[in-house]
Each structure stands twice: as structure tokens, then as C-alpha cells.
Design brief:
Layout (H helix, E strand, L loop, with lengths): L9 E9 L2 E7 L6 E3 L8 H17 L13 E9 L4 E8 L7 H11 L3 E8 L11 E5 L4 E4 L4 E4 L9 H15 L6 E5 L7 H7 L2 E6 L2 H13 L5 E5 L2 H7 L6 E4 L8 H10 L3 E6 L2 H11 L3 E9 L9 E8 L2
Parallel strand pairs: 5-6, 10-11, 10-13, 11-12, 13-14
Antiparallel strand pairs: 1-2, 1-4, 2-3, 4-5, 6-7, 8-9, 14-16, 15-16
Helix pairs in contact: 1-2, 6-7, 7-8
Family: Belongs to the class I-like SAM-binding methyltransferase superfamily. RNA M5U methyltransferase family.
GO molecular function, one term: rRNA (uridine-C5-)-methyltransferase activity
Protein name: 23S rRNA (Uracil(1939)-C(5))-methyltransferase RlmD
């Protein structure tokens, strides 16, 4: 990783309330207890400025902090997102309820104290299991995060997933297309495509890309990102990957997949064996589920290369890209 510290482009901080004081920080492992912090070394500078300023702002506006045990109160989380290419910071306030009367005052005070912030968003989320989900409205700024890689531009909506280490993501895209040795006439299937992280570059270098993603917000953003990059040879399908593959009988030269931590799983891997693509690029953030899936794919595929990426410096987590080539 180019950055050992300050590399994270997204952090989810929780609000708490203790001894009459508002806390902002991280939850203790396997607990709802919020540990207040005023600095996070793996976060960009603007996140730390917000961490220091927000508790006082929230106290001033007297907004009620959400209590997960009693399920009462309003304000749950502050999610901060950052674009390393554009030096943009987005602040997302997550509330339990739709009403957020203090939003205007918070916005005014936040912009005064942390001028680095370019966008302020209000997300309404009644779920206690997922932090960043639900309808949102823009309180200030454009409401999207602009990110630029070596050849492509992205616009990322507040609640859409995007890799959290800018420089490593750039290197991974570069590595994937280099390993695939695209010649421009390939038909590509990009599974778990998100907002088009790999899709856009793949489309620049191949004949046609079908991108499959189950998040409505991400698919909408993916289509917009294809437009921003003037690409007409991309089709985004809003579908669960397993369901999509059940009815898909098209021809593909290449499959790229970047599943969540749980991996692709047996059904998807079996279907890939039936599709018989010439090459498969598997991007994984969990070596255990990667090994499980590769054991199935190895029936007809040789592992050509394995490349780990230090996506999360200061942690034991690793991102891995595996290139597989069909035998015979």
C-alpha cells in the first residue's frame, strides 16, 4: 500500500451517550458500548477533524442519541467517506427516524468547524444490523463522491459499496486487466460488480461486458459511471448472482468475480464450470472462502497466478487476486 496510515476512504463511527456527554467512536467488539475516540490513525485528516468537532456540535443542537438497547432516540452513526483523488470528504448522518429536525443546525456548525467537508447526507435507517442502508437526502453539496483512477472516473452515491483503499484498488484493477491479457474482442461477465469498479476498465479493453450486481443503488451508479466514461459496450443487470446464473446461457470468454467475504459458494462455482470461460479472475477478501471456492474450480482450471494486496494496512486482512485458466 502507498499509504500505511490515513488510507481509509470510509469509516463508520457510532454515537453514544455516557455521563451526560456525547461520545463518537467505535463499538467495543461484540458489544453496543461505544468507545469515544478523537483520532483514528488509518483515517484521512478530515475524518479526524470531524471526530474532534462533531460531539460538541451534537451536544449544542441537543439531538437525542439512539439507544440500541431501548431502541429510542434519533442519531445513530456518522459515516465519513473520502476521495483521495479529489480530496473530497462526505459526512453522512444516520438516524433511526425520518425526522431529523436538528439537521440544518448541525450542517451550519459542521461546515464552519470542518470546512474540508464537501457533502452532507442524511440517511434514514431503522435497521440495527447494517449501518449504511436506506433512503437518503442531500443536506449540502453534490451528494456523490467523485473518484478518479488512472483511466476511469467514478461517482459513488452515499450508500454504495466501494473499496476502501484508493491506491490499492487502482493497482488491483491494473493487475486484473494485465493478467487477463485482453485483446479487445472478448465477451466478459463481471459478477458482484458493485458500481463498476472493474467493469469500466474491462469495457475499455474488451468487446462487451455484462455486469451483475444485486444492489439497486450500485446498479444505478454503475450505469451512470458507464455514461461518464462514454462506454456503450456495458450492460448492468440488477440481480442476485446465483439467480442470474441459473437462467444465463450466453457465451463468455472471461469471468471476473469479486464476491463479498462469504465467497461465491458452490452453486456459483459449479455454474462457472458449466459456462467454461477461458479465464477467470477471482478477487477475494477472505482467504478461507477463496480456498473453498478454488477447490471446486480446480476441477477444470489451473491456477496461473496468486497475488495478495495489502488493502488494509495495520490489520491482518488481505485482498487476493487469483487468475485461473481453463485446461485443454
Amino acid at each position: 500500500s502507498d499509504l500505511e496510515y490515513g488510507y481509509r476512504s470510509k469509516m463508520e463511527f457510532a454515537f453514544g451517550f455516557k455521563n451526560g456527554k456525547v461520545l463518537l467512536g467505535l463499538k467495543r467488539r461484540n458489544s453496543n458500548e461505544v468507545v469515544g475516540i478523537n483520532e483514528c490513525p488509518i483515517s484521512p485528516n478530515s475524518f479526524n477533524k470531524a471526530l474532534a468537532a462533531v460531539p460538541e456540535i451534537v451536544e449544542t443542537t441537543k439531538v437525542k442519541i439512539y439507544n440500541p438497547m431501548r431502541r429510542t432516540g434519533t442519531l445513530k452513526h456518522l459515516v465519513l467517506r473520502f476521495s483521495h483523488s479529489h480530496n473530497q470528504t462526505m459526512a453522512i448522518f444516520v438516524t433511526k427516524t425520518e425526522t431529523f429536525r436538528e439537521a440544518r443546525d448541525i450542517r451550519t456548525l459542521l461546515l464552519r468547524k470542518v470546512p474540508q467537508i464537501n457533502s452532507i447526507i442524511h440517511v434514514m435507517n431503522s435497521s440495527d444490523t447494517v449501518v449504511l442502508r436506506g433512503p437518503y437526502k442531500t443536506l449540502y453539496g453534490s451528494g456523490v463522491l467523485e473518484v478518479e483512477m488512472d483511466y476511469e472516473k467514478f461517482q459513488i452515491p452515499p450508500t454504495a459499496f466501494f473499496q476502501i483503499n484508493h491506491h490499492i484498488t487502482n493497482k488491483m484493477i491494473e493487475h486484473v486487466v494485465k493478467e487477463l491479457e485482453l485483446e479487445g474482442n472478448e465477451v466478459v461477465l463481471d459478477l458482484y460488480a458493485g458500481i463498476g469498479t472493474f467493469t469500466i476498465r474491462l469495457a475499455m479493453l474488451s468487446k462487451f461486458v455484462t455486469a451483475v450486481e444485486n444492489s439497486h443503488i450500485s446498479v444505478k451508479a454503475g450505469r451512470a459511471n458507464a455514461n461518464i466514461n462514454s462506454l456503450r459496450n456495458v450492460k448492468f443487470e440488477e440481480a442476485d448472482v446465483e439467480e442470474f446464473l441459473k437462467s444465463f446461457d450466453g457465451f463468455v470468454d472471461i469471468v471476473v468475480l469479486d464476491p463479498p467475504r462469504t465467497g461465491a459458494g458452490k452453486t456459483v462455482c459449479q455454474k462457472l464450470l458449466e459456462l467454461k470461460p477461458r479465464k477467470i479472475a477471482y478477487i477475494s477478501c477472505d482467504p478461507a472462502t477463496l480456498a473453498r471456492d478454488l477447490a471446486i474450480l480446480k476441477e477444470h482450471y489451473e491456477i496461473e497466478s496468486v497475488q495478495p494486496f495489502d488493502m488494509f494496512p495495520q490489520t491482518y486482512h488481505v485482498e487476493t487476486v487469483v487468475l485461473l485458466k481453463r485446461r485443454g
